[in-house]
Amino acid sequence: MSEDTDDMFDDLFKKYGKVVFKGNAQKYASAEVDEDAECLSFAVALAKVASDVKASDIKLLFVKPLVYWTRFFIIATAFSRPQIDAIGSKIRDLAETQYGRTATGDHKPNSWTLLDFGDVVVHIFLPPQRALYNLEEFYANATLIDLPFENQQTFRS
């Protein structure tokens, strides 16, 4: 870098308080597909854990074309706050031990608990809140991913 460039960055920093740089490098399409596949594998593993803890009506939605901040939503129904806590705890444990990932979001069981892993966001609802917020309808244009495991009971209010 030249001194002129350094001066330009200094001026930008003084004016805006930060310097934002955007490179021209584009990801190759194959790299993005690989990342989607890796995220899908992670999301299916998390959904399987929810199923193992008896969550109901588990949906996995590919929302990347609709939102800029994540790739997948997992939406599940639990029938008590202790069950929400158990599902969330088991999901966090698997994510940390097998994938080295930590969720941001709720750590106390509420009627709607959210665990944000960046590219996978897990929503665990009690039945009334799931019906009220109806994320499946709000993201109706998302692609529903078939889950490769059993124990899928359908929740309807």
Automatic annotation (TrEMBL):
Q: At the top level of its lineage, which domain of life is listed?
A: Eukaryota
Q: What Gene3D superfamilies does its record include?
A: Beta Polymerase, domain 2
By its UniProt entry, which InterPro entries does this protein fall under? Iojap/RsfS/C7orf30, NT_sf
Family, as annotated: Belongs to the Iojap/RsfS family.
* NCBIfam families (UniProt xref): rsfS_iojap_ybeB
Q: What is this protein called?
A: Ribosomal silencing factor RsfS
